[in-house]
Backbone:
């Protein structure tokens, strides 16, 4: 009667559609939601991950292990506390899986991304471990500064990129793919280059392009610390270049004007030699404590890194240790101020030497600014002795034991103690 009534009120098109839908419902059984959970009424199981290890797609499990599915194990599980149960059933597998994931991440950073090569590139160029690169870079920059170029002429993208590309050509590692990631950048543009300021190029940065996910380890904070070290090393290179230029000037004077037997010429050579010794001592200290000792400690700890956090922490500790040993911390600011004053006196000594030509009095070569240069040397000697006393007190108090290496180098043959 229902079918006849339904057929009576439906049109032929609607009737065929209804039959089609009835046929589909008969062919495909609709899944019913489960409304009765027997697991809630059953006894707890001591092995909570048992379902994961069952079936053809389950996790592999040693068949010799006894599965806790019998009645005795279920009854015993009722007497185990929940933390112990979770520790054996959930925490232990999670710890194992986390260790596997950490190992995979460490392998990814070391093998596929080659993070060690990036560390070496930063050491070669930003920390100036590559001697050819540091030599050519400093020579090109300071020669242009000595020629009288203003900051607006020297600190331009065209000039800086040209200097960097030439320095990379002379470098031992300039042909590596990572060398193209370096570029110069300016923090600010100074109005002029002060002739006696050792930090006149602190506005200059050597940037390193780091893509994701390497920027998780080589962060912006790490790059700022690298550039702090780079600025100080550039100041050292400036001192080396200035004293070498003094030596060239004195040698040219001896050849052209025959000043080799002059008393003032001999005295200026002694002054230059003592200043050069001081700069070489600081260079040797930096090369030993930062480029060698700190790097060796860093690579040893990096080899034991077990996760990504350990790699990041080891790299950050390495930079902090390098800044600490490089006397670039806030606590070491008084010592660094003394070193900056000595650097300024070296630049002043060079400027006084090249400012005026040599004269001749009674057949002997004399310099018009010899008294001024003698005063600069005396001030240099006072500051260097004062630095030696300050560092000696720091070492005796147990502060920064690595400064003993600096004392050993600067006080060679007990020069400062005897004087």
Residues:
């Amino acid at each position: 009667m229902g079918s006849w009534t339904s057929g009576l009120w439906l049109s032929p098109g609607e009737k065929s559609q209804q039959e089609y839908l009835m046929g589909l419902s008969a062919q495909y059984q609709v899944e019913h939601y489960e409304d009765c959970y027997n697991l809630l009424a059953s006894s707890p199981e001591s092995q909570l991950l048992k379902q994961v290890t069952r079936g053809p797609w389950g996790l592999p499990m040693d068949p010799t292990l006894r599965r806790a599915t019998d009645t005795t194990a279920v009854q015993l599980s009722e007497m185990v506390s929940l933390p112990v149960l979770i520790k054996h059933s959930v925490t232990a597998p999670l710890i194992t899986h986390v260790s596997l994931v950490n190992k995979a991440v460490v392998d990814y950073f070391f093998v596929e991304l080659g993070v060690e090569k990036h560390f070496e590139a930063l050491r070669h160029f930003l920390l100036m471990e590559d001697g050819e690169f540091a030599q050519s870079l400093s020579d090109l920059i300071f020669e242009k500064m000595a020629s009288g170029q203003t900051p607006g002429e020297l600190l331009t993208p065209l000039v800086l990129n040209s200097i960097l590309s030439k320095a990379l050509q002379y470098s031992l590692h300039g042909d590596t793919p990572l060398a193209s990631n370096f570029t110069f950048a300016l923090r600010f543009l100074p109005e002029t280059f002060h002739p006696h300021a050792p930090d006149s190029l602190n506005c200059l940065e050597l940037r390193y392009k780091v893509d994701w996910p390497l920027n998780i380890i080589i962060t912006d904070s790490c790059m700022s610390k690298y550039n702090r070290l780079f600025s100080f090393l550039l100041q050292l290179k400036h001192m080396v270049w200035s004293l070498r230029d003094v030596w060239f000037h004195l040698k040219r004077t001896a050849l052209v004007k025959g000043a080799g037997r002059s008393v003032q010429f001999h005295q200026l050579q002694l002054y230059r030699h003592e200043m050069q010794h001081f700069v070489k001592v600081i260079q040797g200290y930096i090369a030993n404590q930062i480029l060698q000792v700190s790097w060796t400690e860093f690579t040893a700890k990096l080899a034991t890194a077990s996760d990504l956090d350990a790699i990041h922490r080891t790299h950050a500790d390495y930079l902090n240790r390098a800044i600490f040993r490089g006397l670039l911390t806030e606590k070491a600011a008084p010592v660094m101020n003394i070193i900056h004053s000595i650097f300024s006196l070296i630049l002043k000594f060079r400027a006084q030497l090249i400012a005026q030509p040599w004269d001749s009095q009674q057949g002997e070569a004399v310099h018009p600014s010899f008294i001024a240069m003698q005063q600069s040397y005396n001030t240099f000697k006072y500051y260097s002795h004062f630095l030696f006393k300050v560092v000696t007190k720091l070492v005796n108090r147990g502060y920064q034991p690595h400064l003993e290496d600096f004392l050993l180098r600067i006080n060679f043959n007990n020069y400062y103690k005897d004087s």
Q: What stands out?
A: The beta strands are 182-186, 204-208, 359-361, 364-366. Confidence is low (pLDDT under 50) at residues 1-8.
